[in-house]
Amino acid sequence: MSELQTSRAALEAAARRRRWARALRGLWFGLLVGALLWLIALAVFKLAPVPASILLWGGVVALACPLGGLILGGWRQPAIVETARWVDIKQNLKERMSTALEFSSDEHAGAWRELVLHDAVTHAQEIDSRKLVPFHLPNTTRWALVVLALAAGLGFVPEYRSKAYLQKQADAKGIKEAGKQ
Q1: DSSP secondary structure string, 78-115?
Q2: Which tens digits make up the pLDDT trace of 127-152?
Q3: Long-range contact pairs involving 136-141 (C-beta distance under 8 Å, separation at least 24)
Q4: For residue range 61-81, what is the model confidence (pLDDT) as tens digits?
Q5: CA angle, 29 as apex, 28 and 34 as ends, to 5°?
Q6: Buried-state track 33-60, b at ≥16 Cβ within 10 A, e below 16
Q7: How many other CB atoms are found less than 10 A from the CB of residue 86?
Q8: What is the CB neighbour count within 10 angstroms for residue 164?
Q9: Of 99, 80, 95, 102, whose CA–CA distance to 18 is shortest?
């Protein structure tokens, strides 16, 4: 494996890890949005005389939100140059990786190019993408769990229906029975 391929492989591993971390953050944010939508749909159903289909559609949308967040979070693949600059900053490499990528395409650099590539390879071997991008639960996870707990608690609350609405339903049922007979 050439020096350029070694440094590119390390940068690509870091780029993949960053992309997955972004996708997982999107998943948790989508879970929060979905939980909020479910809580709102459940609250509307409990407080207002709306059909039960609002719960079905609210649940479908709430289940689709985490998947949408995962897809949107991991949609864009970071460029190798962007990742090199990010690694330079995170590892305090003083632009060694990004400079090596820029000089790798310049055939007229000569010995300077080889020195820069060799320096980048020595530092590329020190890159551990697991340490650079650790997977952890973001703060949105806590809020999503709080909202889900609120929705679960709200599920045990009986629906509020006014006496006029209940009388109107009973009258409609009576009219329907009278129509059948």
Answers
A1: PPHHHHHHHHHHHHT-TTHHHHHHHHHT-GGGTHHHHH
A2: 777 888 888 899 999 999 999 999 99
A3: 137/28, 138/25, 138/28, 138/29, 140/25, 140/28, 140/29, 140/31, 140/32, 141/28, 141/31
A4: 999 999 999 999 999 888 888
A5: 95
A6: bbbbbbbebbeebbeeeeeeeebeebee
A7: 19
A8: 8
A9: 80
Q: What's the pLDDT score for residue 106?
A: 65
**DSSP secondary structure string for all residues of 108-171:** GGTHHHHHHHHHHHHHHTT--HHHHS-----HHHHHHHHHHHHHHHHHTSPPP--HHHHHHHHH
Give the residue carrying structure tokens 């080889």. Answer: 114
What is the rounded CA–CA span in Å between residue 95 and residue 88? 5
User: What backbone torsions phi and psi does residue 116 show, to the nearest 5 degrees?
Assistant: -65, -40
The DSSP 8-state label assigned to residue 50 in this structure reads -
